[in-house]
Amino acid sequence: MANLRLRRIRVRNFKSLGDVRVELRQLNVVIGPNASGKTNFIELFLLLKELYARYVRNPVIPPYRYWWRWENVVWRGSDEPMRVEMDFESPDYEARLDVVVDYVDRLAIPYERLEVRCPSRNYYVTLEKRHGTATLTINRDYLEGLAPSEVKGLLKLAAPHAREALERVLREGSLTVRTAAESLLAPRAIFAGMVARGEGVAAINYGRDFSDRDYVLVAPGPLRRVAVRVGERQVLRFEHLLVMALRELERFFRRIVVLKPMDAQSAREPKPLRLEAELDVHLRNLANVLYTVFHRRGGRVPDRVESLIKLAYGREVHLWPKPTEDGRVMVCATEGGAELPPPCLSDSLLKLLGIGLALEQEPSVLAIDQVEDSLHAKTIEVVIDELRSLGSTTVILTTHSPAVIDLLSPEDVVLCEMTEEGTKLRRLREPEALRRRLGELGLTLSEAYIYGGLDGG
Length: 457
Fold this sequence. Notes:
Blueprint: E1 5-14, E2 17-23, E3 27-31, H1 38-55, E4 82-89, E5 94-104, E6 106-118, E7 123-130, E8 133-138, H2 140-144, H3 148-157, H4 160-172, E9 174-178, E10 199-205, E11 216-230, E12 233-240, H5 241-254, E13 256-259, H6 264-268, E14 271-272, H7 286-296, H8 303-313, E15 318-323, E16 328-335, E17 338-340, H9 347-360, E18 365-368, H10 377-388, E19 394-399, H11 402-405, E20 413-419, E21 422-427, H12 431-441, H13 445-450
Parallel strand pairs: 3-19, 3-20, 13-18, 18-19
Antiparallel strand pairs: 1-2, 1-4, 4-5, 5-6, 6-7, 7-8, 8-9, 10-11, 11-12, 14-16, 15-16, 16-17, 20-21
Helix pairs in contact: 1-5, 3-4, 7-9, 8-9, 8-10
């Protein structure tokens, strides 16, 4: 399950999103006219996943590959960089990540800043990367609150090559080092959490060689107990709060799932058999992902997938991946004892399979463009109910369907419109008053939207 939740996001200079900020709830449904920028908001999360889950670790395939060229990513081909600011919450801390992405000869992240706060421990730390340097800053109140025995313990446990850096942080509250890292979240890092009377120190290596102390950032800070799996057992260990934040942010971006309108014909076609864990945005690799999940679960489809289909159809339909004699694999189903080959599978069944497999990945963000495509109104209700139940996942949908809008609370709605300055997103003003007013007038939410009765704030 995701521990980190995205609460706010601001983006500047991505496609039609010239300057957009929005508060995010668990369920967020973006509605608006055609060509107003709804899909661009969905695609923002695709770019963030490509950037942080792939490019910063292996800068070979550019994160803008879905849009062909960088000029197609930025607002009207602007020379200005793209900038994204994200606010996160978790049970242990709050975090803000600010990233600038630009293209000058090559794609680069010229500026990046991570703030991590733990109010209960009066702890505030920032990591800032600017071109070829990284700077660590820790609030003086926290450092001055460390007992002499804790400081002594930290210095004693610190690795010899990091001790000088730690002394400087304890004395001055900050440290700047050279860095060859593409990003704060992929620093070629070696993290070491060490226990010293309830406090810890994290040594973060931003270079190629851990023995080169010029590349080391050292961060004193609180420790948290975390459960880790060792073989078949779960054990508790201490983890430095900053290390926890970096690890969970990396996991957050890796677990973003974006689904765009399904390529049903390609989803039906047998594919060369290979293990694939991540869904293609158009569900073209459904067969391979189903094959991977099926075999990792000992030859069965996840219960969540089958229960979603049963709820939607009102009857049992069993799916499985069927290998072919020429080394390919395809999606097949049985219903009432009869086998259904791919040409006999409905678009709705394939889409439900894709959504079910996406849920099985326990996404941090699940962004679905045109969620209603291929689905009956009653099936849409089943899907929306299932998405609401994902307490740890931020769900972002776009729709043109009144059937979807009428399943929503006013708090779920995000209005989208195109202006001369680009796309604007905004929440409904006074949703509780709107709910009462609609009840008095006998109107549905979709009727109010179609006839201009919804006002964003």
